[in-house]
TrEMBL record:
Residues 7-204 form the Deoxynucleoside kinase domain. This is Deoxyguanosine kinase. The lineage of its organism: Bacteria, Bacillati, Bacillota, Bacilli, Bacillales. It comes from the Bacteria. Gene3D superfamilies: P-loop containing nucleotide triphosphate hydrolases. One of its GO terms (molecular function) is deoxyguanosine kinase activity. It is an enzyme of class 2 (transferase). Keywords: Kinase, Transferase. Its EC number is 2.7.1.113. It comes from Fictibacillus barbaricus.
């Protein structure tokens, strides 16, 4: 695991990952890593027809996230520059498990395992989830055109998949602290006090020595 702080913010679509990662980057003066989303040429088609376009969509995300993490390792972490990311590459497994057919999923996981074998691993995860109503509200507020045809049932199932995955992740990786927040109860964009609560928990985790400073 990296000795330099590398924080990943995770959660389902619309929960506020990028907004929180930006706030953390500004507050702690960390390098910000943002996932490529709208640049994916298959994503709009994916929301129209998941079965038809899931493999292309997930492979694009995998290759781009691999390249981003490789650059983050070479340009920042290897030089002891702290990083905060608005995703963890493990999210690819969640989405692929939900959308890919068996024959595609097997091929995809072979590629995933090869590409992520020596990728930098975050040493703190901030996990946010929320109810479907909250997620839909925030997706609507940010107004991404490619998300307007998203099936609410897909988003609801995705949120449940995240909870299941994170429960398993915490058992499998007890060495990585996971800070969990409920987006129904906390709004760090609207309320400064909520943002300060998050920073306070990050500070406490850093001070415990669980993540190198």
């Amino acid at each position: 695991m990296n000795s330099t702080p590398f924080i990943a913010v995770e959660g389902p679509i619309g929960v506020g990952k990028t907004s929180l990662a930006k706030a953390i980057a500004e507050h702690y003066e960390f390098q910000l890593l943002k996932e490529i989303v709208e640049e994916n040429p298959f994503l709009g088609k994916f929301y129209d027809n998941i079965d038809e376009w899931s493999f292309q969509t997930e492979m694009f995300f995998l290759c781009n996230r691999y390249k981003q993490l490789e650059e983050i390792q070479d340009q920042y972490l290897s030089k002891q520059v702290p990083v905060v990311s608005d995703y963890h590459i493990f999210k690819n497994r969640i989405f692929a498990g939900r959308t890919l057919k068996d024959r595609h999923h097997h091929k995809y996981m072979q590629c995933f395992d090869i590409l992520t074998e020596d990728m930098p691993v975050p040493n703190m995860i901030i996990y946010m989830n929320a109810s479907l109503d909250t997620l839909l509200k925030r997706v609507k507020q940010r107004g991404r055109f490619i998300e307007q045809n998203m099936d609410p049932a897909y988003l609801e199932q995705l949120a449940a998949d995240y909870d299941t995955f994170m429960s398993a992740f915490k058992k499998q990786h007890p060495e990585i602290p996971v800070l969990t927040f409920n987006g129904d109860d906390i709004d760090f964009v609207a309320y400064e006090t909520d943002k300060e609560k998050i920073f306070s928990l990050i500070d406490a985790t850093l001070k415990k020595g669980e993540v190198a400073k």
